[in-house]
Amino acid sequence: MLRLTACVAGIYSCFLTWGYYQEKVSTTPYGQDAQKFKFFIILNLAQSLCAATVAFVYLALQGKPLSSPSRSLLFKYMQVALIGVIASPFSYAALKHIDYPTMILTKSCKLVPVMLMNILLYRRKFPTYKYICVALVTIGVSGFMLFAPLDDHKGKKGAATSSLYGLALVAINLTLDGVTNSTQDQIFHAYKVTGQQMMFFMNIIMSAYMALWLLNPFNPELGQALTFCQTHPAIIKDIAMFSICGALGQCFIFYTLEKYGSLSLVTVTVTRKLFTILLSVVAYGHQLNLQQWSMVAVVFSGIGLEAYVKRSEKLQKIAASSTTTITTEKIVRDSPVGSTTTTTTTTTTRQRTTIVAPKN
To answer: Is the overall model pTM greater than 0.85, yes or no?
Structure first.
């Protein structure tokens, strides 16, 4: 539980800072001409290269080998990296047709496609309480956004600017994210890889895909981005901070993914949206209505249920292990001197699939 808490703290601290710089780079006018940076593939490429570097350094400091993956594993890496590269543009394209609150509201249900892809693609089964946890967290976070007070300046909560086309783009993005997360889970179960090894290979392959796209002679994005950085050098520091925070956050993400599964990771990233708003309430004195506080209770009830069940399972496992040890020692002690005692211990191994509380 202590390790999971450290992972959650690392993800929150890194990606809250990452989100700050992402918004700054995406929305802040730079220079006297007040130009905005619109080259988002460049941002993703910078972050991927930084993340691959951080993973390589981490593995080197830990003395862990970075051996070449097998052909089948390399194919899996290429597959999940390609899906990850494709998913991001759908999210940016959706913002042209729906407003940001609607995007957040829709992405709050990311737990659902992740679990669905695990079930459909890899035939994985989950205990009943895990479905309940997913439902509670999704309903709670979505309800919290839905019951937000109306802004008189912006009108209704995105209803006027939302479109079915924009929502369809978000649905495609969520589906691809679900395939990515479930495939990463399958890689961890099928191959003996660490989170940082997956982090390195996925990011280096994603960087290769994006570099090929940017080096396309018919694509002027790379030249335009370099020109923008030359004329607005202040953005270089913001891009660097964006990339570093994202890379460090990925270390926590892949460790969480390796140890606790994609559903645990997604629950952390989804609830981060809620904790960001709660932090804003404390820091800036915003008011929450009764419906929103009730949704906060729903989210924490789902997280609490998961934590309670996991703790109970762990205590039962420890108790069963202690009972087996005591019984074995008693048999050996009570055996006559000179006799031969054969003790057979049968251990039942259960496959662990976790959703407690991954890209963005």
So the answer is: no
**Separation between Cα atoms, residue 151 and residue 157, nearest integer Å:** 8
What per-residue string of b and e applies to 183-204 under the rule 16 or more CB within 10 Å gives b?
A: bbbbbbeeeebbbbbbbbbbbb
Read off the pLDDT of residues 268-295 as tens digits, 9 standing for 90 and up: 776 676 666 665 566 556 577 888 788 8
* Alpha-carbon gap, residue 305 to 134, rounded angstroms: 11
Q: Tens of pLDDT along 307-350? A: 677 667 766 877 787 776 666 555 656 555 554 444 444 444 44
Q: CA–CA separation, 5 vs 261, rounded Å?
A: 15
Residue with tokens 């007070």: 149
Q: What is the DSSP string of 63-122?
A: T---PPPPHHHHHHHHHHHHHHHHHHHHHHHHTTTS-HHHHHHHHTTTHHHHHHHHHHHH
Distance CA 260, CA 19 (A): 24
